[in-house]
């Protein structure tokens, strides 16, 4: 899965970079998503490989905090980029005449920087708040990587501040992003239904299919995992592990597959590159 995630997302980045017709807002946001997925995969690569290949089940405390920080930072960035992609589709469908005026290169760069800074600034307190807590000896994580709610439960002291801040993070990032994504698609659907041509409606909605699927495979495991950690005291450990792995590994693996299969311009660009390589050989 790691190989598929890394190769798939690096291929998307290469195709977009080397194909001039893909230097448009929609594909620039896609390249941001691919880069974030690469970062998310690399964040867990060392511990997961040691766990599955060497059966090495220990991780140094500070390494665990660092991994947790990067996992949650890249997850927050991905959520922000998914919101930016929803906004891109909203402008393209609801206000196409102003598309290039609204989504200028400086604004796209600004959106990307905001996603990065928001992720970093919101997640910096997580390891700091955990580091001040006493931890019992012989503690065991539920997952093969360091996830904040999981690490927090291992503390011997009061974690009330950590819980409050964790909830604030969810509300300030993932919850707000998902709400605005839903609002964007409600407005998109309203605009599409106002189009008299059936072909026009299908064409407009078809440009959103890949993004909608990506939103589902990112948010559904995230929501289920959050509910398990909050209310799943008697939930099977197997369900914990399964949802944790789906949350972390499913999105980076499926995103490049979805966009390469469902986006015509990406498929054509990949075919053109492969054809030129074959002719060169």
UniProtKB/TrEMBL annotation:
Keywords: Cell membrane, G-protein coupled receptor, Membrane, Olfaction, Receptor, Sensory transduction, Transducer, Transmembrane, Transmembrane helix. Its main location: membrane. SUPFAM superfamilies: Family A G protein-coupled receptor-like. It comes from the Eukaryota. It is a multi-pass membrane protein. It holds the Pfam family 7tm_4. The chain crosses the membrane at residues 28-53, 65-87, 107-130, 163-189, 209-228, 240-261. Gene3D superfamilies: Rhodopsin 7-helix transmembrane proteins. GO terms for biological process: cellular response to lipid. It is found in: Cell membrane; Membrane. Signal peptide: none annotated. GO terms for cellular component: plasma membrane. GO terms for molecular function: G protein-coupled receptor activity; olfactory receptor activity. Residues 8-259 form the G-protein coupled receptors family 1 profile domain. The keyword Amino-acid biosynthesis does not apply. Belongs to the G-protein coupled receptor 1 family. PANTHER family: OLFACTORY RECEPTOR, OLFACTORY RECEPTOR 56B1-RELATED. This is Olfactory receptor. It comes from Marmota monax (Woodchuck).
């Amino acid at each position: 899965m790691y190989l598929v995630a890394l190769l798939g997302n690096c291929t998307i980045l290469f195709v977009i970079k080397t194909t001039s017709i893909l230097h448009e807002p929609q594909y620039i946001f896609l390249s941001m998503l691919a880069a974030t997925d690469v970062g998310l995969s690399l964040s867990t690569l060392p511990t997961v490989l040691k766990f599955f290949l060497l059966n090495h089940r220990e991780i140094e405390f500070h390494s665990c905090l660092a991994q947790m920080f990067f996992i949650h930072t890249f997850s927050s960035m991905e959520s922000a980029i998914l919101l930016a992609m929803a906004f891109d589709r909203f402008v393209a469908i609801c206000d196409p005449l102003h598309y290039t005026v609204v989504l200028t290169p400086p604004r796209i760069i600004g959106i990307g920087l905001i996603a990065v800074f928001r992720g970093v600034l919101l997640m910096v307190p997580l390891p700091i708040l955990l580091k001040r807590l006493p931890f019992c000896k012989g503690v065991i994580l539920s997952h093969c990587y360091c996830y904040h709610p999981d690490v927090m439960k291992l503390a011997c002291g009061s974690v009330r501040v950590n819980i409050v801040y964790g909830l604030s993070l969810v509300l300030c990032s993932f919850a707000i992003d998902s709400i605005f994504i839903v609002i964007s698609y409600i407005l998109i659907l309203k605009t599409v239904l106002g189009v008299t041509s059936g072909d026009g409606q299908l064409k407009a909605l078809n440009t959103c299919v890949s993004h909608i699927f990506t939103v589902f495979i990112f948010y559904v495991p995230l929501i289920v995992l959050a509910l398990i950690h909050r209310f799943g005291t008697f939930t099977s450990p197997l369900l914990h592990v399964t949802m944790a792995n789906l949350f972390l590994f499913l999105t980076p693996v499926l995103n490049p597959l979805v966009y390469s299969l469902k986006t015509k311009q990406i498929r054509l660009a990949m075919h053109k590159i492969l054809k030129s390589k074959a002719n060169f050989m």
